[in-house]
């Protein structure tokens, strides 16, 4: 499928900053408050698809089995995991799905961030991809939610919110059957929700998730249908090390975004790598 959505190749660090923070001014409150979410990847040709969508044609058939068995086998151990306090045991379907995504299960969720700098990190952190162009996707979540069925828009209006929480979604979409129901399947729209603060990693990455209602498909299809809501910013390979070094100096690195020894070691190994 060819590219039809807005696509721009940046030529400098300052141009990238300008594009990512563009349209962030909120005249109503006289503050800079962007209504966009961002996702960075080391390869510009990466297809924007969830782990579940990447399972192929059987993904929708497998989804219920993956979630059922995750909950079945994880239920007895969640309170024993140091990163999940007893008071934070999953309390609803969306909480469970966020937990599954957080630990690597293929789900229909896709990771995003409110932070342009965090998205820049993920576009310029993999040493194996430093010699190819990267990309950052930018999506207007406020206008995206205007496309949702009225009952879901009503939830946001009642709460005075722009993004859903797991508790808000549970009132209208309490389980997988409702999420996949034929009554909303024809919309095939996207919504964004903030996951519970399951770990310092989610908090530090300023994370949120996108989820497709109805049948799970690659998000690329939705982006191509709504070019007015999205942008794709290409980061040339020759700029990656400059961006990477400036992010490190700004303290945006694995050491902060992945608290713990794994993040520390990733950061150190890159610090002592000589660019090709």
Automatic annotation (TrEMBL):
<feature type="domain" description="FRG">
    <location>
        <begin position="32"/>
        <end position="137"/>
    </location>
</feature>
<dbReference type="Pfam" id="PF08867">
    <property type="entry name" value="FRG"/>
</dbReference>
<dbReference type="InterPro" id="IPR014966">
    <property type="entry name" value="FRG-dom"/>
</dbReference>
<protein>
    <recommendedName>
        <fullName>FRG domain-containing protein</fullName>
    </recommendedName>
</protein>
């Amino acid at each position: 499928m060819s590219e039809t959505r807005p696509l721009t190749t940046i030529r400098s660090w300052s141009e990238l900053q300008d594009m990512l923070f563009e349209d962030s001014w909120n005249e109503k409150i006289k503050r800079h408050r962007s209504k966009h979410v961002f996702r960075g990847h080391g390869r510009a040709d990466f297809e924007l698809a969830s782990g579940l969508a990447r399972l192929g044609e059987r993904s929708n058939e497998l989804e219920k089995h993956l979630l059922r068995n995750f909950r079945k086998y994880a239920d007895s151990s969640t309170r024993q995991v140091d990163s999940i306090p007893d008071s934070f045991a999953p309390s609803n379907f969306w909480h469970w799905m966020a937990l599954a995504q957080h630990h690597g299960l293929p789900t229909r969720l896709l990771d995003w961030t409110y932070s342009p700098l965090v998205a820049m990190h993920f576009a310029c952190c993999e040493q194996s991809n430093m010699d190819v162009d990267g990309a950052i996707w930018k999506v207007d979540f406020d206008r995206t939610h205007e496309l949702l069925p009225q009952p879901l828009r009503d939830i946001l209006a009642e709460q005075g919110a722009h993004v859903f929480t797991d508790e808000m979604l549970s009132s209208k979409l309490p389980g997988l059957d409702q999420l996949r129901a034929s009554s909303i399947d024809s919309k095939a729209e996207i919504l964004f929700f903030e996951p519970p603060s399951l770990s310092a990693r989610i908090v530090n990455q300023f994370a949120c998730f996108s989820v497709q209602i109805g049948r799970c498909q690659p998000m690329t299809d939705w982006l191509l249908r709504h070019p007015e809501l999205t942008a794709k910013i290409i980061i040339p390979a020759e700029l990656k090390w400059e961006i990477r070094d400036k992010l490190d100096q700004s303290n945006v690195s694995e050491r902060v975004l992945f608290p713990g020894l794994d993040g520390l070691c990733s950061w150190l190994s890159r610090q002592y790598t000589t660019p090709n």
